[in-house]
Write a structure and sequence with these properties.
There is one protein chain. The chain has an 8-stranded mixed beta sheet with strand order 1-8-7-4-5-6-2-3. The chain has helices at 3-38, 46-51, 99-114, 131-142, 156-160, 191-201, and strands at 57-65, 71-73, 78-79, 89-94, 121-126, 150-151, 168-172, 177-183. It is globular and about 45 Å long. The termini are far apart. 42% of the residues lie in helices and 20% in strands. 30% of the residues are buried. The chain has 2 domains: 1-40; 46-201, Glutaredoxin, CATH 3.40.30. By secondary structure, the chain is of the alpha+beta class.
Amino acid sequence: MSPLIQRLQRKITRRGLIISLVSVVFGGIVAITLSLASAEPSVCTWQGATDSGISNFLEKDPPAPIEDTVFFDRNGGEVRLSDYKGTPLIVNFWATWCPPCVAEMPALDRLKGLLADSGIDVLAIDEDRDGAKLATKFYETNNITNLDILVDRQMALVKAAKVSGLPTTLFIDADGNQIAAVVGEAEWDSPDAVEFVKACLLPEN
């Protein structure tokens, strides 16, 4: 083989190697860029809640289930949070003697209606001593039509959930794990709050 042909072969080999290296590096850059683009930060944070007009948002890290304590429907039938497994939940603890609880109940009632097609359910669990009777009267007086009447006799569930004040609202994912809590009143039916609830409890949508 002549020296000229050998030199040409070496040049072609070097060019091929350079092109291969450029392709590998460029491909790696594209892959990293796509990965970073897809790894969007969660909005289910204190800052996300604040931006949505919700105060006192507390993330639970790591998420954990609540003890599966019995509470009751308006007819005295037993209910457990595990009955809702597979359904993301907003669980609000309230009482008729609690002014901020009473103030936010209409908004929670509207929230349940607004989330009806989303797959998220809203539970309002009454902590009154004579819960079913007082809750029924309150619902009728205040035209609460979407929320079910649920009663926590002897505050068993609120204690199991380690809730220290009313109102407190828990965010529970479809696996039954509490992921966050809101302590105090919120404007639950505002557009920003509704979207925040969906972002937290339906993160893949």
